[in-house]
Amino acid sequence: MxxxxxxxxxxxxxxxxxxxxxxxxxxKVLEGDRTFLHPLLxxxxxxxxxxxxxxxxxxxxxxxxxxxxxxxKLIGLGAVFLLLKTQAALPLNPEGMGNVAxxxxxxxxxxxITNTNWQAYSGESTLxxxxxxxxxxxxxxxxxxxxxxxxxxxxxxxTRRNATGLGNAxxxxxxxxxxxxxxxxxxxxxxxxxxxVIQNFSAYVxxxxxxxxxxxxxxxxxxxxxxxxxxxxxxxxxxxxxxENSTPLSNFxxxxxxxxxxxxxxxxxxxxxxxxxxxxxxxxxxxxxFILALTVxxxxxxxxxxxxxxxGATQAAALSQTGGNMEGKEVRFGAGxxxxxxxxxxxxxxxxxxxxxxxxxxxxxxxxxLLMQLGEVVFGGVGSGxxxxxxxxxxxxxxxxxxxxxxxxxxxxKVEAFDMKMAALAILLPCAAVLMGSAISVxxxxxxxxxxxxxxxxxxxxxxxxxxxxxxxxxxxGGLNANxxxxxxxxxxxxxxxxxxxxxxxxxxxxxxxxxxxTPEGLGTLPTHTPLFVGxxxxxxxxxxxxxxxPALALGPIAExxxxx
Length: 565
Fold this sequence. Notes:
two-stranded antiparallel sheet; two-stranded antiparallel ribbon
């Protein structure tokens, strides 16, 4: 099974090799500098500003910026909801898909505007081609661009001095989409088509034997759902469907694409704050936690399930199988590639799957769950992962400053009481949504009726669902029937809280930081680019996760793991 460990190593090398040039390009885009794409896309950008009546140099305060982001999300919510409720009467619906139920429509609309892409339905049996493209794919672009815009505004809060403006939200959204997301998605979609991922508007194929082969414009949506850390599959099986993920090569490249932009943004951060070491430190902290999680998940899945061994099943590698725990996995990918994807998709806020997480071993399933519960900051979502990690950075700076008796500073800006309150809100609101939602669910007959497995695994299904929704991931333990009014409405509330309950405090803190004067670095300034601070940051992230969720995890995957012995 050494191939799995070799694949993990190649994955990390490829990811980091691509992150640096992409990060440099994104820094130019977000700063408004000219790139190699401007001769082609510059006129389009200027035409969009004229159509919007927008002056690109106009600055916004943090409240105006936050309301602009919220407004475009509300418009998207309404648009997706209307599409879902009227798709039966709209074109590009060759299979005659009916209108979607109200509770599921609300859940789906909220899911896609918040970058969660939680899906309590199967796309090929529920949605028309028009709904998939005009509704869901558009929100995949906008939700990813939103994350980059908020991150850019926060960085301006750090780098600008004695100012009030954080930039222009509409300009940041346009540039992120036009110069980063669209070009990458276009190239990636062409690659996917070359690998066999379908892209058509054909009617479904009905064979004489009664089999139905779903068709549709899948490649274009798969590209942005991976690059934008959205994760919602065109088909219900997501990345395990051969029309969505056709070959081992497409599987590997799709896995890399999950973390590509989040990793690149660490490089972007270092360039924008004029100290590249700061970006490298953040990248090092994220990589260290990711490698630890990947090692545990890979080992757990390659070792296999002792209950299956006791029942006489062979889980050793052989010519006929890759070995390990193959329940719920594609034979063409094996346990190693499945563990790699599961770790990447939950380290980011992607949530796509190429295997069923519900069938992972207890420890293998614990890793994706814990990565989400850490706040999706180990690379995390596009933009959102990095500004989430920066909240932990400020907590680490604050704790370190108290230990040495100095006012905490980060990149020349003093970290004061208001800033810490906002950081605490951004970190703890999703945690509260997870724990409160799980507690209400286990006490509600309407919620426990959806559980397919009794005992610790059933609790894990509930805990995983709320962890996924509140941290805007979207993956699931599929044994939970989430298409009920309780979960559709409840998880929608958790998604909104997990997205806007972080964006607003982050922008409020940016509004506070941007007004402060720059404090020159002195002998007593805590360096935040050293291995020591990387260790502090890792400790803060893991400590918050451990204190918050270990008791709940002990009732679910840990208890299940101990029961296998």
